[in-house]
Amino acid sequence: MTLKQTHTVPVAAAKAGISQATGYRIQSDPTMPSQKKKPRGRRRPDPLADIFDAEVVPMLQSAPGIRPVAVYEEVMRNHPQLDPGIRRTLERRIRAWNAEHGPEQEVMFRQIHEPGKMGLSDFTAMGKSGVTIAGAPLDHRLYHFRLAYSGFQHAHVVLGGESYVALAEGLQNALWTLGGVPAVHRTDSLSAAFKNLDQAARDDLTDRFDALCQHYRMTPTRNNKGVAHENGSIESPNGHLKRAVEDALLMRGSRNFEDLPAYRRFIDEIVGRINARNAKRIDVERESLRPLPARRTTDYEEIALRVTSSGGFTLRKVFYTVPSRLIGHQLRVRLYDDRLEVFLGGTLLMTLPRGRAFRDGSHGHVVNYHHVIHSLRKKPLALMGLVYRDQLFPRRAFRDMFEALLEQAGEKAACRMTVDLLALAHDRGCEAELAAHLEEDLSQHRTPDIPTLRALFGPSEDTLPTVKVQLADLKSYDRLASAPVSDLEVTA
C-alpha cells in the first residue's frame, strides 16, 4: 500500500513480492483477511445461563474471598444434573466477574534499593532436604542474610529453631564475611523466636537484639506479622537458595556427609558461587557500607547452673554429664546454637555438644561415659535401669552387645560385662578398636572374653620403660640432720 502511492499497481506488486492479482484485490478491498472473519459464536448452550447471575453472583457479593472451587461444589450440590466439566467454565466466569466487579486488591510497590542501606535476615526450614550426618538425619534450618541492593548472601546451618543465639551468630558471621555493615537491618516478626516465652523473656530478647544492632550501628526494623512480602527481598531468595541446595545434592549423588563441618562447607560453597555471579555489584555496595566495630559482641546466652549429685546439670530440658569432681559446684554455661561452653569461675573447663529435647516434650540427654564410669564400676547393676542408658553407649556395638548379653547371660552378668567393656575402652583409649571386636563377636554369636581383651589392649611389655631407682643410704640423712648450720650454709 505504501509503494502504490508512487507506483502503478503492477510495479508496486512486483516490488512487494506479491502477484498483480493480489495487488488489484487489495486495491479494491484493503480490509485484512483476518479482519473479515466473523467472531465465533457459542457452539453449545451456556450451562450457566440461568445460574450465574441468579446464584453465583450473590455468593460472590456476600463472600468476596470465597474460592471458586467452593462455589463450584455448592452449585453441583444444588444442581446435580449439571456436567462436572463446567468447573473450568465457572472458574473463568468468576475470574472475569472479579476483574470487573470484585474487591480492590493489594498493590505491591517496587522499591529502589540504595547501596549500603538494607540488609535482611530470615530462617528457612531444611527438614525435607533429607541430609544426614554419618547416617543420622539432620533436622536443621538455614539462617539466611542478604543485601537488598547487591544480592550478597550468607547462609549458616542452624541446628535448633529460630532463636536469638542463632540470629546473633549467623548475622555476625555474615557481617564479618562481608567486611562491612548496612545502615538498616530487617527481620520478620520473630514470632518463632518469641514462641513459648513469657513477657519478661520476650522483653529481654528484644533488648538483646536491639543491643546487637546498636553494637554494629544498624537500625533494627521488622515487617508486620504475617505480611511476608514486606520482607520480599529475602523471602524469594530463600526459595532460590533451597532449590540450589537441592540441585547440588542431586549432582553430588549423596545426601550423607561425614560430619557437620563438611555439610557447612558444602553450603558455603553454594553461597560462594551465588555471590560470584554478583561480584561487581557487591564490590560497588561494599564502598557504601559502614565499617565493622573493633570486635564481635556476644552471640550466646550465659546461664548459671549447679551440678547435682547425678553428675550433671539440666538445661532447656536436656541433661548433660560433667566430671563428678564438679558435683556441688556452680558453673557458668555459655549456650550457643550447636555447643555449650562450661566455665568454673573464669576458667573454661570443657565444650559440650548441645542437645535438644524431643518433640513430644520428653527430656534429652548428652552423656559421656568417661564422666561416670568410675562410679559405674562400683555399682554396675545401676546400668539396668539407668535413665540415659541408651545415650551412655559410645558406639552402637556396645549397645547391641549389652542386649545380646541380656538374652544370653541375664541382667546381672550383662551389666557387669558391659561395664567392664566400657571401663576397658576408658582406661586403654581403644573405643573404636574394641567396638570392631564386639561387632565380630556379635556376628559370630560369641560372648566377649574380657581377660583376652584386656591382654589384647593392654600395653606391651616391650614398650614399657625400665626404670632403675637407686636409693640413698639412710645414714646420710642422719649426718645431714646432725651437721652444724654453718656447714650447711657453706655447702649451699
Question: What are the main properties of this structure?
Answer:
alpha/beta; Nucleotidyltransferase, domain 5; 5 domains; four-stranded antiparallel sheet; 46% helix; elongated
Shape estimate: elongated
Give me the count of strands. Answer: 15
Strand order of the largest sheet: 5-4-1-6-7
Mean pLDDT score: 87
CATH topology of the largest domain: Nucleotidyltransferase, domain 5
Share in β-strands: 5-15%
The tally of helices reads 20
Give the helix/strand class: alpha/beta
Which CATH C-level class of the largest domain is it? Alpha Beta
Helix content: 40-55%
Residue stretches low in confidence (pLDDT < 50, at least 5 long) are: none
Instruction: Describe the sheet with the most strands.
Output: 5 strands, mixed
* Rg value: 38 Å
Q: Termini distance?
A: 127 Å
Q: How many domains comprise the coordinates?
A: 5
CATH homolog superfamily of the largest domain: Ribonuclease H-like superfamily/Ribonuclease H
CATH-scheme architecture of the largest domain: 2-Layer Sandwich
